[in-house]
Amino acid sequence: MTALKNDRFLRALLKQPVDVTPVWMMRQAGRYLPEYRASRANAGDFMSLCMNPEFACEVTMQPLDRYPQLDAAILFSDILTIPDAMGQGLYFETGEGPRFKKVVSTLADIEALPIPDPHKDLGYVMDAVSTIRRELNGRVPLIGFSGSPWTLATYMVEGGSSKDFRKTKAMLYDNPQAMHLLLDKLAQSVTSYLNGQIMAGAQAVQIFDTWGGNLSAAAYQEFSLAYMRKIVSGLIREHEGRKVPVIMFTKGGGLWLESIADAGADALGLDWTCDIGEARQRVGNRVALQGNMDPTVLYAKPEAIRTEVGRILASYGKGTGHVFNLGHGITPEVNPEHAGAFLRAVHELSAQYHE
């Protein structure tokens, strides 16, 4: 494989010295970019974009071509590929988000679920990873990803997005045996899926626990974190002669940082509700931190964006172990020029913290 020309993202995740704080954005290939919208129109729909390796590669590369400051690429895919491969029938309705043709509601439903083979059932994702990695040609590292078992389970039980997760939480409390079986199958599936991505060329992986923060403290430990811990313990941690860092991100998980930091990942993603300096004090030297600017700051003028970037960098302070990111994904209405101002500010303002 081609040697990396820019590896500061990987070095920061492993708490190794860097010249400036590396930066990337969750959902950096997305609807805020006119070139993405054009590609999606050419593909026909979102799933056609995801399931065609050439299209997935094209949109993954678009933000890198526009913003030379980006220090990583992230695979363009969807977190719900695993439930789809389990036979749930993923589709998207305009204005409604993801939906499933089948829902999981009984122990029998869960027992019947297969564990997907990443190469046979999700081969289009593996092909996308290898295609993107080849196209990157060592420019920056490639991040692979998956949803967490708990997050995937909520969509499978609810049949789509939910505001209150009433069906999922009812199963959790009424039938914990069924919920644990579902989460265990999903943990096995995520482990093999991420390992498949690593073997196909992903150089770091992130677990997105989008809905873990909606659980109680006790339920989070038992039904979300325990299964992410299981995944991390089963991941390939070295490939192509270097370590493969793992990032764990629970949106709304600020109350449980110490527990998440002990779960075996190399880095912990923060949403924007945490102060990153306080988070650094709480987790000590155990993990790197990724985050954590409020994505809506990008609606503001470039001067205000730059001020907020400076505040977050100052809060983290000197030294490595910080990957700058948003506290969640960039939103579709953001002006691409504002995203560029954000990325430039991170590199320009962070050098002083790495002297």
UniProtKB/TrEMBL annotation:
<keyword id="KW-0963">Cytoplasm</keyword>
<dbReference type="Pfam" id="PF01208">
    <property type="entry name" value="URO-D"/>
</dbReference>
<comment type="pathway">
    <text>Porphyrin-containing compound metabolism; protoporphyrin-IX biosynthesis; coproporphyrinogen-III from 5-aminolevulinate: step 4/4.</text>
</comment>
<feature type="site" description="Transition state stabilizer">
    <location>
        <position position="78"/>
    </location>
</feature>
<feature type="binding site">
    <location>
        <position position="78"/>
    </location>
    <ligand>
        <name>substrate</name>
    </ligand>
</feature>
<feature type="domain" description="Uroporphyrinogen decarboxylase (URO-D)">
    <location>
        <begin position="143"/>
        <end position="159"/>
    </location>
</feature>
<dbReference type="InterPro" id="IPR000257">
    <property type="entry name" value="Uroporphyrinogen_deCOase"/>
</dbReference>
<dbReference type="GO" id="GO:0004853">
    <property type="term" value="F:uroporphyrinogen decarboxylase activity"/>
</dbReference>
<comment type="similarity">
    <text>Belongs to the uroporphyrinogen decarboxylase family.</text>
</comment>
<keyword id="KW-0210">Decarboxylase</keyword>
<dbReference type="GO" id="GO:0005829">
    <property type="term" value="C:cytosol"/>
</dbReference>
<feature type="binding site">
    <location>
        <position position="328"/>
    </location>
    <ligand>
        <name>substrate</name>
    </ligand>
</feature>
<keyword id="KW-0456">Lyase</keyword>
<feature type="binding site">
    <location>
        <position position="155"/>
    </location>
    <ligand>
        <name>substrate</name>
    </ligand>
</feature>
<protein>
    <recommendedName>
        <fullName>Uroporphyrinogen decarboxylase</fullName>
        <ecNumber>4.1.1.37</ecNumber>
    </recommendedName>
</protein>
<dbReference type="GO" id="GO:0019353">
    <property type="term" value="P:protoporphyrinogen IX biosynthetic process from glutamate"/>
</dbReference>
<feature type="binding site">
    <location>
        <begin position="27"/>
        <end position="31"/>
    </location>
    <ligand>
        <name>substrate</name>
    </ligand>
</feature>
<comment type="function">
    <text>Catalyzes the decarboxylation of four acetate groups of uroporphyrinogen-III to yield coproporphyrinogen-III.</text>
</comment>
<comment type="subunit">
    <text>Homodimer.</text>
</comment>
<dbReference type="InterPro" id="IPR038071">
    <property type="entry name" value="UROD/MetE-like_sf"/>
</dbReference>
<keyword id="KW-0627">Porphyrin biosynthesis</keyword>
<feature type="binding site">
    <location>
        <position position="210"/>
    </location>
    <ligand>
        <name>substrate</name>
    </ligand>
</feature>
<feature type="domain" description="Uroporphyrinogen decarboxylase (URO-D)">
    <location>
        <begin position="22"/>
        <end position="31"/>
    </location>
</feature>
<dbReference type="InterPro" id="IPR006361">
    <property type="entry name" value="Uroporphyrinogen_deCO2ase_HemE"/>
</dbReference>
